[in-house]
Amino acid sequence: MNEKKLSDKEKSLFGKELNPSNILPQKLTMGSKIKFRCHPGVRCFTACCGGIKIVLTPYDILELTKRLDMPAHEFLHKFTEPTYLEKTDMPGVQLKLRQEDNKCPFVTPEGCTVYSDRPTACRYYPVGMADFHEGGTRDADGNESASEEEKFFFIVKEEHCKGFEEDKVWTIEEWRADQGVDVRDEMNMEWLRLVMRRKSFGHQASLSDQAKRMFFMASTDLASFRRFIFESSFLDTYEIDEETTEKIRTDDVELMHFSFVYLAATLFGAQVLKIREEKVQAKMKEMEARQDESVLSSIKEYEELKTEREKQKTEKK
Ligand code: SF4
Ligand code: SF4
To answer: For ligand 1, is residue 76 a contact (CB within 6 Å)?
Structure first.
């Protein structure tokens, strides 16, 4: 295994809430090898599907609701509970464990009933990823970027997990491809950046309740977000080309990516959406009118003061 030691800060990650003492203190790369296999024959089969916190990303929710053929609001109500993301004030959801056995609602003795659509966090286990791009890196054009060097991997080795006693050897790259993690990373990346950006700002920067509610709605219920786009004054305010408009009307994944762009603009003021020229003009007129009003009211105040002075002078004479 590779090689560099993990610092305490670097042990933070997104996904399952982990006990730091179970994290092996080595930084791994894509080429590092691990000996591990999980299959229904292991003694501990499904032992890792209980007593855990599994935070859901927007793409996780999208895939699970499709799989269960259930509207997001019903899914959220039935299978999730609210949480805060990455120790920030950003609201999200996690899977609600069954009351009777503290296990995931989708686990049975035969295994995961939603396996091919299981959440990102389940796919990562037991290989965690740390990504230290927290919204702070920008290239020469001001675009955010994350270099590969900012990412590394680590192993979570829990006492009950017998997969490490199996003989199969993989590189991290092979393991991730097998688990479908790469696709999930691509789908989650922009959303995770929003969360990490919030985290890097700390509590000094305040976020309005309205902004938090919008983040929650867009991150958990795309049907509501779509209604917001098409049934509010949104399209009258922002300049969205026809092709994009059509895509987000019909394609959930396109809508999800669009929601990340919108949230970056709303939460962090990213200059990614163009406001319509007539709206800008109307806003400027409003500001000018306000300026005119304040100038007129200053003049009025001055005139009143002058009249008052002159009156006092006349009275003294
Ligand atoms: S979704 Fe599936 S893999 Fe993930 S914890 Fe639940 S049962 Fe286990
Ligand atoms: S505890 Fe480890 S080996 Fe056992 S089911 Fe979970 S991942 Fe597989």
So the answer is: no
Atom of ligand 1 nearest to the CA of 111: 7
What's the pTM? 0.80
Q: Which is nearest to 125 in space by CA: 166, 95, 154, 92? A: 154
For residue 216, the CA-to-ligand 2 centroid distance in Å is 32
User: Please, what is the Cα angle at 303 between 301 and 307, to 5 degrees?
Assistant: 120
Cα gap 47→44, rounded to integer Å = 5
Q: How far is the CA of 123 from the centre of ligand 2 (A)?
A: 12
Q: What pLDDT does residue 130 have?
A: 79
Which of 99-108, 163-172, 276-285 shows the lowest per-residue confidence on average (mean pLDDT)? 276-285
CA distance 12 to 73: 30
pLDDT at 203: 63
Residue nearest to atom 2 of ligand 1 (CA): 112
- Torsion over CA of 102, 106, 112 and 115, rounded to 10 degrees? -140
Model confidence at 215: pLDDT above 90: yes
Question: Which atom of ligand 2 is least distant from the CA of 37?
Answer: 3
User: How is residue 37 annotated by DSSP?
Assistant: -
With a 6 A CB cut-off, is 104 part of the ligand 1 pocket?
yes
pLDDT band at 166 (very low <50, low <70, confident <90, very high): very high
Domain ranges of the chain: 4-200
- pLDDT of 138: 45
